[in-house]
Amino acid sequence: MTRATPLHAQSPRHSSPQHPSPQQSSQWSRTREQYAPPAIDTHTTMEEALDKELKAAIAKTTAGLSPIALAAAYSDWALHLATAPGKQLQLVEKAARKSWKLASYATTCATHPDPPQPCIEPLPQDRRFSSEAWQSWPWNVIHQGFLLNQQWWHNATTGIEGMTQQHENVMEFVSRQILDVFSPSNSILTNPDVQQETARQGGWNLVRGWQNFVEDATRLGSGQKPVGAEAFQVGQNLATAPGKVVHRNRLIELIQYAPTTDEVCPEPILIVPAWIMKYYILDLGETNSMVRFLTDQGFTVFMVSWMNPDAGDRDLGMDDYMSHGVMAALDAVQAITQRNKVHAIGYCLGGTLLSIAAAAMARDGDARLKTLTLLAAQTDFTEAGELQLFINDSQLTFLEDMMWKQGYLDTSQMAGTFQLLRSNDLIWSRMIHDYLMGERTPMIDLMAWNADATRMPYRMHSEYLRRLYLNNDFAEGRYRVGDRPVTVSDIRAPVFLVGTERDHVAPWHSVYKFNLLSDTDVTFVLTSGGHNAGIVSEPGHPRRHYRIAFRAKDANYIGPDRWMANTSPVEGSWWPALSDWLTKHSGEATSPPPLGSNENGYPPLCDAPGTYVFQK
C-alpha cells in the first residue's frame, strides 16, 4: 500500500535553504490554484499487489517487454497468414525467385572475373556491406543472400490483410532484430574486413577486443560509466557556463546564467529541457553550448535543471512537473527580471510539457509567453516513430507494474529500449568495431552526456505514455490541466519549431504536425542530424545544413514531404536563425538584470551547475 506525498513536503534529499517571500508565496498560490495536480488514491489491494509483483518479476527477465504483447502480435500474424493461401503462395513464389536469382548470381561470380550487378542493394542507412572486401567472391554472395532473406521476411510480415497495423509493425521490427543477430557482418568467419584486419595484426585485434569486452562488461555490471567518460566532468569541462542557481524546490533547480554582453534583450529566455537526461546537453563544452551562444547574442538565459527521482518520488505526476517545474520557473524568471514577457524554449519531453503549459496559460488568459520555441518536441503522437511499437495497453500495463515495484523507470531500462530502436548503430556496429576490430570509439562530450541518464517517476511516466503516446489526448483536446481540457489551437504566441532529419525519438514528420494543430505563426526548421546531434549544431560544426520556412497562421497547410521538396537547404548551423528570430520578436536592448533577486525571494543559492545535476 502506498500513499501520495505532497510535492511541497521537503525531504532531506530535496531540502532547500530558500525561504519564499510574501510576493513569491502569492505567485506560488496562483500557480497551485490554476495548475495543481488533483489528489489521487494510490491504495493497492493485496490481490492487485500479487498480480503486480508477478509481472514485475517477469519484467526483470524480459527487459521490460511484455511477453503477452509480443505473443498477441505473433498470434495475429500467424493466424491471419494461416488463413491467407494467396499470401502463402505469393511468399513461396518470392522464395523461389530469390533462390534462383541468388543461384544465378553465385554462378556468374564464380565463373567471371568481373562481379555482376548485385541482386539487391542495401537500404540507404545500411552501411554494413559497403567496403570493397564485401564485393568479391565469396563475400558478395554471402551478403546478397542475407539481404534477400531479409527482404523476404519483410514481405512475410507485412501486407497481410486483417492484421492490426501495430502488430504488423511489431512483427516486422522483431523479425528484423532477429535477422540482424545473424548478419554475416557480426561474425569473424563471414566478415572479410575483420579477417583482413586479423591477418594484418596477427590476431592482436581480437586480443584487444576481448579486453574491451571484459572491461565493458565489468563497468556495466558495477554501474560505472563507459570507458572515457571519466574525462568529461560536470562543472569542469561540461556545463561550465557561469551562473547561479536562483531557485530550488523538490523538483527543479533554476539556473540563471551570467550575461556576456553590456546590453541584453529585455525579454529573458527560459529553457525547459527533457527530464529523461541531464539538462546540460544544451551547455556541453565552451564551443558547443547553446547557453553560451545565446548569452553571447545578448539574451538573459535561465535553464531548468530537473532532480533525479528515486523510489520516494513515485507519485510525482505530469501536473507536478508542470506546476512545480515550468510554472514555478516562469514565476521566478518574471520576479527576478521584472519583465512581463518571456521567450520559452522546450527540448524533447520538455518541449511537450512546455506546449501543454502554453496551452493552459492561453486558456486562462496568462499572456506571459512572448514566443515559444520547440526543439524536437511532439504534440501529436500518431506518428511517433518506432517507440510506438512498445505502446499499447498490454505493454503499458506490464511496464506500469514494473515501475510500481521500483517506484521509477530505471536508466538501464530506458537505454535498452533506445538501443533496440537503432541496434545496427548502437549494438552491432559497436560490437564489430570494439570487439572484433579491437578499436575504441573515442569518447566525446555528447556521448558522455548520453551516459548520464536519469530515472522517471512511476506516476509521471505512466501518465505521459498513456495520455500522450497511447491516447493522444493533447492533440485531440482531451488533455486536462486542472479541471478543464487544453488545446494546441489556443496558443497564440509565435512558434519556432525544429525537427531533425534522422530523429528516431521524435520523427520530424511527427514534430511537423504542430502545423496541423496550431492557430499561430510557425517558423519550421528541419536540420540535419539526429535527435541530439541535430539540436547541438553550433556554428562551425562541419557538414551541417538546415531548411527553414515561415507559415502564417491563416496560410494553407502544406504536407511535410512537399514542404521539404519546396524548401532549399542552407549550409551551416541553424542557431543563428533562432537568434535572429528571437531578436526580431524582442524589444530594445537594455541593461542585464541581476543574478537572482533577494528582495523578491529568489536569492542566489549556489554557483551553476547547481546540485541536482550531480544526483545519481
Automatic annotation (TrEMBL):
<feature type="compositionally biased region" description="Low complexity">
    <location>
        <begin position="10"/>
        <end position="29"/>
    </location>
</feature>
<dbReference type="GO" id="GO:0016746">
    <property type="term" value="F:acyltransferase activity"/>
</dbReference>
<feature type="region of interest" description="Disordered">
    <location>
        <begin position="1"/>
        <end position="34"/>
    </location>
</feature>
<dbReference type="InterPro" id="IPR051321">
    <property type="entry name" value="PHA/PHB_synthase"/>
</dbReference>
<dbReference type="GO" id="GO:0016787">
    <property type="term" value="F:hydrolase activity"/>
</dbReference>
<keyword id="KW-0808">Transferase</keyword>
<dbReference type="GO" id="GO:0042619">
    <property type="term" value="P:poly-hydroxybutyrate biosynthetic process"/>
</dbReference>
<keyword id="KW-0378">Hydrolase</keyword>
<feature type="domain" description="Poly-beta-hydroxybutyrate polymerase N-terminal">
    <location>
        <begin position="48"/>
        <end position="87"/>
    </location>
</feature>
<dbReference type="InterPro" id="IPR022211">
    <property type="entry name" value="PHBC_N"/>
</dbReference>
<dbReference type="InterPro" id="IPR029058">
    <property type="entry name" value="AB_hydrolase_fold"/>
</dbReference>
<feature type="domain" description="Poly-beta-hydroxybutyrate polymerase N-terminal">
    <location>
        <begin position="125"/>
        <end position="294"/>
    </location>
</feature>
<dbReference type="Pfam" id="PF12551">
    <property type="entry name" value="PHBC_N"/>
</dbReference>
<protein>
    <submittedName>
        <fullName>Alpha/beta fold hydrolase</fullName>
    </submittedName>
</protein>
<dbReference type="InterPro" id="IPR010941">
    <property type="entry name" value="PhaC_N"/>
</dbReference>
<dbReference type="Pfam" id="PF07167">
    <property type="entry name" value="PhaC_N"/>
</dbReference>
<keyword id="KW-0012">Acyltransferase</keyword>
